[in-house]
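[job 4471] stage=fold_predict status=RUNNING
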Amino acid sequence: MSEGRIALVTGVGPGTGSAIVRRFAGDYQVAMLARNAERLAAVEQNVPNTRAYPCDVSDADALAATVERVREELGLPDVVVHNAVGGAFGDFLSIDADVLERNFAVNVMALLHLGRLVAPGMVERGSGAIVCTGNTAAYRGKDFFAGFAPTKAAQRILAESMARSLGPKGVHVGYVAIDAVIDLEWTRRRNPDAPDDYYCKPDDIAAEVWHLAHQPKSAWTFDVMIRPFGETW
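[job 4471] inference complete, writing structure tokens
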């Protein structure tokens, strides 16, 4: 591990999560959290300055123990990116209520617990950034998005509350909403005829997360909405 700043990233999957890890790993020691230990191990092997911490962020006790491990082994994170996401499609009549509760645990409660675990140390230090990745569902409840849109809206409002509380104490909180289909293997399979500019690239999302986490204190942004140039909005 290289010495220096520390970043913690949840939801390290094959798309946005891994892209965020790669973007930060050049300048940070990156603690990677996700349920899939095998996937994390592969990233750790291929990306320098990363360390795998398998964890289900919907389990509050497991999350607390994992963050404590990160602090013991690496130190207090300078940047936390909550990218883990729970989602399910369906209208309010057809969704499984238990799935909606689990999505709330991943999207909202995990953000609450992460904030409580890292913010006091950031405030004491007088610096830090907590960035949450979201999507269009945080702003509107379309009929087939009832399985997760309520949780993403709650996530964004929680992040805004955190920003208002922590900002005056020197800790930046920001929300990056991705109004797009992210360029992944499974999204390409679902939209085989879509042009390349239909998709938002994970590396470009990661660059915006990096930018938000490193804004000067004189020009902090909370709400960021990104979309490909061809997206209708």
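[job 4471] summary: The CA atoms of residues 67 and 117 lie 7 Å apart.
[job 4471] exit 0
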